[in-house]
């Protein structure tokens, strides 16, 4: 139908005796006009051509009967193809994210509508039109179709769309912003709560990002954040939501994931990718990342609870040494408070000589003799007891007294080395803050002189992180140590920070291969071993020696020896030992460690001293957990427990592990887990899958205390518990 026909039909003329059609708007009066039909038609033509307004019409069945030519051009479809088509086959709603009005619904209601944003079906990315329509009826009241207008609102719509996008997405990285992540997490948890599904939240914070901003400028910092966002997208190849919450903090929402093994591997992958070097216009830089992980509904059910849990885990990761991940546990808050108290006690520990050292043998691969010992600092706390080297390093890492502890460690290690044969060196790890201190070289010189040992018997293990400090200070310190004859080892080589520039300009005597790289070499098919061999070849070309530590298995030991690694260290030889034992072993002039069948691979045990509960035949017993490894545990407190007894071990927080007694001696039982534990990212252990809170609730058992009966009394049937508590319980270490 032409515009003339459209106009005629509205006036009831059309030259065919048609009955006039009228708009159904209540109270609508005929327009007063002094214009002839021809003049009115010319005016409407001019209006269409000006672009200020276009017209369309449909019949009662919804088929198009008229469309302005300019409107047809906008959607890039010839007019002859449009007339007769249903309006819904020509236009599609253009509202954002599918939440707009439905065009078929608007037309089907046969009511007036306006402001309907649409796009052409054949050009969904083309112009955006705003349609308005008015239903038209015959004098008898029968519906006769729609008459309406259309306006091009592309520019306005695009502007609004960009404003809406900026409200949901981070303008710098393109990731979701804080507001959208909060909305997505709230919606996900609400939906999953009813469906009893799991959802993990990972909080990621960059390490040393402020240093990049301070040294390279904020433009470099912005570019770095863009590259971090791109790496995060590549690292997480699964359904998830990734957002930047602001600054250098990121969040990942992972629906339907509660396997902490999977989450730990993902966190480790992210940390590894983010610590690889970045190339910026302002220069090359290296940062790190820490991650905290919480899982709903285990660690919380609301958005506030789960975010707080992930934040606490992130805090623990950053203050436990950085470049690691942590899972949330109920003890984290208390642990954080306790760690702060221990940090406050460090000053007293230094003044009152509560610190002491244990020494881990470093063995020459060819001779099998101990040629050096690495000093580890421990703490004999008056209330807590012995705090071993692993836990102590986590406590002291974030302390302002880290450099003071480092000074004490160097002095104490030199004093101990004076008791050993002159062929044996002592190795000490140097904190970055101490290395960059003005008095560091003097501290080293005084420690060597007072102890009366040769300078070459002190070996300082230096992290590559020192090279992020002032270049002049670093070079001057390394040169002064070299001139004094102090041996220098580049620690954690292959961790991701490594640069040949460090090796070319620094006078290192040896390279210590990163322990994580060696762990991968032990578990992979050979790619990492090839990298180890390349490091050995590089060290040889630079006239440096290689050290490998953390060795646990005979297979890895053999592979490293065949690769040409000269010095070896790890549990397969010996755990760190007290100074007195070193003196006893050195009495014969040399300490040679023979590898026998008793040194077959065994999971490293972590000393623990806390109360837990074990369950057997519906009885729960409170025992003391003495030590823990991936494959088993040592408990104390029950008497006459035969081998082969099965327990469900409650490690807390819904961590229930099935274990079998493999050895029993008085009130001590050695347990072997049915499923091995996994690393929690910070030197601890945890189970892969926790007991479902929903399953525990269905069984009538609260998650915080999944206990059936108390061993001190009887169960509901009146039966007496099978095992009795040992009296008195032994207190010495097992």
Question: Quick gist of this model?
Answer:
The chain is of the alpha+beta class and 734 residues long. The model is unreliable at 7-22, 597-603, 702-717 and 729-734 (pLDDT under 50).
Draw up the topology in text.
Blueprint: H1 3-11, E1 22-23, H2 37-50, E2 54-58, E3 64-67, H3 69-74, H4 79-82, E4 91-93, H5 103-108, E5 113-120, E6 129-137, E7 143-152, H6 154-168, H7 178-195, E8 199-207, H8 209-216, H9 218-235, E9 241-246, E10 249-255, H10 260-274, E11 278-280, E12 283-285, E13 288-296, H11 303-318, E14 325-327, H12 332-351, E15 355-364, E16 370-381, E17 385-387, H13 389-397, H14 402-417, E18 425-430, H15 432-435, H16 440-451, E19 458-463, H17 471-483, E20 487-493, H18 500-505, E21 510-513, H19 515-523, H20 527-541, E22 545-548, H21 554-563, E23 567-569, E24 577-578, H22 579-585, E25 606-616, E26 619-628, E27 632-636, E28 638-639, E29 646-650, E30 656-665, E31 668-673, E32 678-679, E33 685-686, H23 693-698, E34 724-725
Parallel strand pairs: 13-14, 16-18, 18-19, 19-20, 20-21, 21-22, 22-23
Antiparallel strand pairs: 1-6, 2-3, 2-7, 4-5, 5-6, 6-7, 8-10, 8-13, 9-10, 11-12, 15-16, 15-23, 15-24, 16-17, 25-26, 25-29, 26-27, 27-31, 28-34, 29-30, 30-31, 32-33
Helix pairs in contact: 1-2, 8-9, 9-10, 14-16, 19-20
């Amino acid at each position: 139908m032409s515009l003339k026909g459209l106009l005629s039909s509205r006036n009831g003329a059309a030259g065919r005796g048609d009955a006039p059609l009228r708009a159904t708007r209540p109270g609508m009066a005929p327009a007063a006009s002094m214009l002839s039909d021809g003049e009115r038609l010319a005016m409407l033509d001019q209006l269409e051509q000006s672009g200020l307004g276009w017209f369309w019409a449909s019949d009662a069945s919804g088929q198009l009967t008229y469309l302005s030519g300019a409107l047809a051009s906008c959607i890039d479809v010839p007019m002859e193809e449009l007339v007769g088509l249903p309006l819904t086959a020509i236009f599609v709603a253009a509202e954002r994210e599918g939440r707009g009005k439905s065009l078929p619904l608007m037309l089907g209601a046969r009511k007036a509508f306006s402001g309907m944003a649409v796009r052409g079906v054949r050009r969904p990315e083309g112009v955006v039109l705003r349609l308005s329509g008015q239903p038209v009826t015959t004098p008898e009241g029968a519906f006769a179709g729609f008459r309406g207008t259309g306006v091009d609102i592309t520019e306005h719509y695009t502007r609004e769309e960009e404003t809406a996008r900026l409200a949901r997405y981070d303008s710098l990285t393109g990731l979701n912003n804080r507001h959208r992540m909060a909305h997505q997490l709230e919606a996900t948890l609400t939906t999953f709560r009813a469906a009893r599904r799991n959802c993990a939240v990972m909080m990621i914070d960059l390490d040393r990002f402020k240093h990049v901003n301070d040294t390279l400028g904020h433009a470099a910092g912005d570019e770095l954040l863009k590259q971090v966002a791109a790496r995060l997208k590549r690292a997480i190849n699964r359904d998830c939501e990734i957002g930047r919450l602001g600054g250098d903090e990121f969040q990942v929402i992972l629906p339907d994931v509660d396997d902490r093994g999977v989450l730990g591997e993902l966190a480790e992958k992210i940390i590894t990718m983010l610590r690889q070097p970045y190339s910026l216009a302002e220069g090359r830089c290296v940062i790190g990342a820490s991650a905290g992980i919480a899982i709903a509904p285990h660690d919380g059910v609301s958005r506030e609870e789960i975010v707080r849990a992930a934040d606490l885990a992130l805090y623990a990761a950053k203050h436990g040494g950085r470049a690691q991940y942590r899972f949330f546990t109920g003890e984290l808050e208390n642990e954080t408070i306790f760690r702060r108290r221990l940090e406050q006690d460090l000053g007293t520990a230094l003044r009152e000589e509560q610190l002491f050292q244990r020494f881990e043998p470093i063995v020459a691969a060819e001779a099998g003799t101990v040629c050096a010992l690495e000093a580890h600092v421990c703490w004999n706390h008056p209330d807590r007891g012995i705090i071993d080297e692993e836990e102590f390093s986590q406590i002291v890492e974030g302390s302002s007294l880290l450099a003071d502890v480092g000074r004490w460690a160097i002095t104490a290690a030199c004093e101990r080395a004076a008791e050993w044969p002159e062929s044996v060196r002592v190795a000490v790890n140097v904190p970055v803050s101490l290395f960059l201190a003005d008095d560091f070289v003097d501290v080293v010189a005084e420690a060597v002189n007072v102890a009366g040992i040769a300078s070459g018997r002190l070996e300082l293990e230096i992290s590559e992180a020192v090279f992020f400090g002032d270049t002049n200070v670093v070079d001057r310190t390394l040169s002064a140590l070299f001139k004094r004859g102090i041996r220098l080892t580049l620690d954690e080589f292959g961790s991701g920070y490594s640069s040949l520039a460090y090796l070319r300009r620094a006078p290192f005597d040896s390279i210590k291969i990163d322990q994580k790289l060696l762990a991968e070499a032990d578990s992979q098919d050979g790619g990492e071993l090839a990298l180890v061999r390349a490091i050995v070849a590089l060290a040889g070309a630079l006239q440096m020696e290689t050290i490998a530590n953390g060795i646990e298995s005979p297979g890895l030991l053999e592979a490293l020896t065949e690769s040409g690694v000269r010095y070896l260290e790890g549990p397969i030889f010996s755990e760190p030992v007290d100074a007195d034992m070193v003196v006893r072993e050195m009495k014969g002039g040399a300490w040679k460690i023979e590898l026998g069948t008793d040194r077959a691979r065994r999971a490293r045990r972590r000393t623990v001293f806390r109360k837990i509960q074990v369950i057997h035949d519906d009885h729960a017993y409170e025992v003391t957990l003495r030590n823990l490894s991936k494959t088993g545990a040592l408990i104390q407190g029950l008497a006459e427990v035969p081998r082969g007894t099965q327990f469900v071990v409650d490690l807390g927080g819904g961590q229930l592990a099935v274990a079998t007694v493999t050895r029993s001696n008085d009130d001590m039982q050695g347990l072997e887990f049915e499923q091995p534990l996994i690393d929690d990212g910070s030197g601890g252990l945890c189970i892969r899958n926790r007991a479902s809170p929903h399953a525990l609730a269905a069984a009538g058992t609260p998650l915080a205390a999944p206990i059936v009966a108390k061993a001190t009394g009887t169960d509901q049937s009146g039966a007496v518990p099978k095992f009795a508590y040992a009296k008195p319980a032994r207190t010495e270490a097992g």
